[in-house]
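Quick one, tokens below. Sequence please?
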């Protein structure tokens, strides 16, 4: 072909673009740029026929026998298997610089279908050699050994007999059998024409419900399939049945988790076609949306909802319905590997009704009007137990209770919790200081309960609870028992209780719009379990309970036994437990017929104790486990189902007084009750 014919061909191509009916009118600047890129690629090919290409061709690839019928349609990586892997090895072996192996497995004629370490190393060399084509377009500077889209495109070009060099640039290389051009579209321009098919993705589903102030909520999904070649999606036009900026502030387009485009919604960015057709085009993607041949991607539309929408727009406060979709069957544009624009879309067939070609979205008034705040005792709040002071007769940071605080339908700012009450009647103790602690362990409030009434307020909290979430708050206390009893830590305060109560209606909170949460929207009460305080003494816990039943004999009574493994921790000061079997550990049996004390109770001196008279001493700072066995017979109450339960434990500060103090907090606690057993 002579130079005059080449120039004439280029001119003809340019004229063809400009005279297609309606084409120049519909084309955007972006589309014209793509057409220019296509013409430049074709011009480069024609120049190559004149020997004027900028890149020198050094080799001409031909497809090996192992590649017959093979195409690279999937990504390959370490561990991949298949005939495409064998073809990959054969192509790599055509060049000594990228060969899988010189001899043996993987070498020429000994290719395998397994992608192993040798193959990965060869791919790295291949990618580095052709970096301009396979690495630079995807932002890489060194080979990875992963055969992804760009590497597959290069291999596909080799299969087609494309000449290759190690210096191919963005203008392309021309050889005796074909041309490959990489453009700014993010795909290798190998001349293959493609097409796209667009459909509505099932997710997000129809009838998305939005509320004032919602952010980045998905309302529409477009499923795009590429056929014929890889394509680069570059534009999507959306249609709204109502003026979108009356409801939304911004619109976003997402490729999976990646935001690729965004635009504010206003009279400048949105075009009004008619009263039921408002359109906006999202383009200038910040990340490439490349879809491999025969693959599919979903682009998702998300919106931010205005925090305040006029009642007139929301039909006097009621929800407004908006239909979202695409204005035409050409609303999505992509560029194929021939540099041609390809179009598809799902045209909205109705702007006033819910049909298959659109998505229905309802915009609702803020939920803050119905926001609520409720509290309840947390399931892991401390059960009844002993709290023992330290050697300075101080209680520091003892947890009295934990409670749940739940916000619904709006984010709430809690300012104060008033009238937190510590029971102040006879037998109860009012702590010196109380702390409000969140579930991260941060102290968010402090108060000093009234020394007479036990009531106080956690003020100036400035604590946020997000909509639909639960916060676990705890009340902890400090108390000095030496101030209560100046003579000895084991006197009047022994066995006094801390009991705290929090009431939901006493909480002051604001909604997200700054309005106060009304009393009617607050509910719940949380009351702690009793905590018994001692200047010195034990903490009793149950490690396990084992239950046995004897073999049933006709005419004889049946019996059951339960062994309670009771851990006695002498936190501060020595603790004494009577060695008389029936005295320290009081166990009841329980049946449908009634409850009564068990008389058959046995235990032996546990390890870690000292026998002192008729007692066992657990020294301060030590823990001993008492294995206490109780046995009951159905001769007592007759046939029925029995369980055994620890009722209370006697103990003392000194060996001569081991019955004056009793811990009863285990009574009724399920962890101190044996397995129920039926006695015939």
């Amino acid at each position: 072909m002579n130079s005059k014919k080449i120039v004439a061909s280029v001119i003809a191509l340019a004229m063809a673009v400009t005279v297609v009916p309606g084409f120049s009118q519909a084309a955007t600047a972006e589309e014209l740029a793509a057409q220019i890129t296509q013409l430049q690629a074709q011009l480069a090919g024609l120049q190559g026929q004149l020997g004027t290409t900028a890149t020198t061709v050094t080799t001409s690839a031909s497809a090996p026998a192992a590649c017959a019928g093979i195409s690279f349609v999937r990504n390959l990586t370490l561990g991949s298997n298949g005939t495409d892997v064998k073809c990959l090895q054969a192509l790599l072996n055509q060049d000594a610089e990228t060969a899988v192996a010189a001899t043996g497995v993987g070498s020429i004629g000994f290719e395998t279908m397994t992608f192993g370490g040798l193959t990965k190393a060869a791919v790295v060399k291949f990618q580095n050699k052709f970096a301009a084509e396979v690495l630079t377009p995807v932002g890489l500077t060194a080979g990875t050994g992963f055969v992804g889209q760009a590497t597959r495109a290069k291999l596909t070009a080799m299969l087609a007999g494309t000449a290759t060099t190690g210096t191919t640039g963005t203008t392309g290389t021309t050889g005796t059998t074909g041309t490959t051009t990489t453009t700014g579209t993010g795909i290798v321009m190998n001349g293959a024409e493609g097409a796209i098919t667009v459909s509505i993705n099932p997710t997000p589903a129809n009838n998305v419900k939005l509320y004032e102030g919602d952010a980045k909520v998905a309302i529409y999904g477009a499923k795009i399939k590429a056929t014929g070649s890889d394509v680069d999606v570059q534009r999507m036009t959306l249609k709204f049945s109502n003026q979108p900026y009356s409801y939304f502030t911004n619109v976003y387009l997402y490729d999976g988790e990646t935001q690729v485009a965004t635009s504010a919604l206003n009279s400048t960015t949105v075009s009004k076609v008619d009263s039921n057709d408002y359109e906006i085009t999202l383009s200038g993607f910040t990340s490439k949306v490349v879809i491999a041949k025969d693959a599919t991607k979903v682009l998702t539309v998300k919106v931010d909802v205005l925090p305040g929408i006029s009642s007139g727009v929301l039909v006097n406060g009621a929800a407004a319905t908006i239909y979202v979709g695409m204005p035409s069957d050409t609303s999505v544009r992509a560029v194929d590997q021939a540099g041609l624009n390809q179009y598809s879309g799902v045209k909205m067939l109705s702007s006033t009704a819910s049909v298959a070609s659109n998505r229905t979205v309802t915009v609702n008034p803020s939920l803050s009007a119905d926001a609520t705040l409720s509290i309840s005792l947390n399931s892991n709040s401390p059960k009844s137990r002993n709290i023992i002071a330290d050697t300075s007769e101080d209680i520091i940071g003892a947890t009295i209770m934990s409670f749940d605080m739940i916000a619904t339908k709006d984010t709430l700012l809690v300012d104060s919790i008033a009238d937190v009450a510590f029971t102040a009647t006879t037998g109860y103790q009012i702590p010196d200081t109380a702390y409000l602690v969140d579930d991260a362990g941060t102290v968010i409030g402090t108060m000093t309960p009234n020394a007479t009434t036990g009531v106080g307020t956690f003020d100036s909290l400035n604590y946020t609870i997000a909509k639909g979430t639960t916060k676990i708050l705890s009340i902890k206390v400090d108390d000095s028992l030496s101030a209560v009893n100046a003579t000895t830590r084991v006197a009047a305060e022994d066995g006094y209780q801390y009991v705290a109560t929090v009431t939901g209606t006493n909480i002051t909170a604001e909604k997200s719009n700054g309005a106060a949460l009304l009393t009617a929207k607050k509910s719940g009460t949380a009351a702690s379990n009793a905590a018994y305080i001692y200047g010195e003494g034990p903490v009793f816990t149950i490690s396990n309970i084992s239950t046995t039943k004897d073999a049933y004999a006709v005419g004889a009574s049946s019996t059951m036994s339960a062994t309670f493994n009771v851990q006695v921790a002498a936190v501060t000061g020595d603790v004494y437990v009577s060695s008389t079997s029936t005295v320290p550990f009081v166990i009841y049996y329980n049946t449908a017929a009634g409850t009564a004390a068990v008389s058959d109770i046995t235990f032996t001196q546990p390890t870690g104790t000292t026998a002192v008279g008729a007692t066992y001493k657990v020294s301060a700072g030590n823990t001993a486990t008492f294995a206490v066995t109780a046995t009951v017979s159905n001769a007592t109450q007759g046939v029925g189902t029995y369980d055994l339960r620890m009722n209370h434990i006697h103990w003392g500060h000194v060996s001569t007084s081991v019955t004056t103090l009793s811990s009863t907090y285990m009574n009724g606690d399920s962890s101190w009750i044996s397995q129920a057993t039926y006695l015939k």
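The chain has nine helices and 46 strands. The first helix runs from residue 3 to 19.
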